[in-house]
Amino acid sequence: MDSMLKDLGLLPEGRLKIEFAAKTMPVLRAILAEFEKTKPLRGVRIAACLHVTTETANLCQALIAGGAELALCASNPLSTKDDVAAAIHVDFGAKVFAIHGCDRDTYYRQVDGALSTEPTLIVDDGADLTTTIHTSRTELLKHVIGGTEVTSTGVLRVRNMEREGALRFPMFAVNDAATKHLFDNRYGTGQNTIDGILRATNALFAGSGFAVFGYCWFC
Fold this sequence. Notes:
Elements: E1 3-4, H1 11-22, H2 26-38, E2 45-50, H3 54-65, E3 69-74, H4 82-92, E4 95-97, H5 104-115, E5 121-124, H6 128-135, E6 146-149, H7 152-163, E7 171-173, H8 178-201
Parallel strand pairs: 1-4, 2-3, 2-5, 3-4, 5-6, 6-7
Helix pairs in contact: 1-3, 1-4, 2-3, 3-4
């Protein structure tokens, strides 16, 4: 099995969205161009569990340009974009296991699908790949040389495993990087708060007054 997707017919729309997002990601595009020349990931098998969005699609493209074999599953079915998932699979050649709004059992079948590639590197968002390897897929431990974790929750889970002596391969806490912490955790959360209010209330900014409590640099 090389994919679990909702509809390959959604490909054209996903392709356009990925191309649009790429225009606002100049650093990643520069990395992609360098990877195409140097192929630093040749021979590396990557399993990634991430939000399947246009931003992730451009990351996938860069990793594959670097020579990696990539399998992708969704870290959150509610954020999965089915059209983007189709484009990642068809255009970039990744094995993609992601369906928007799937149930719990299907979700873990998708995790197993990504892990069936016997990855050597893990790119995790929430530590589901990492914990699954350490519990029900321990035969994969001999292949994995390390991984990354990008969220606060996932880093907490991994550090608990480390304290208990259960972590069997090194993990890099991307969540602790200054750029990730500032632009995602701090500023991104602030923007998402406004977005959530607008979506929930369908309110307009025009003519409205806002009072904000408890949000500052040190929060």
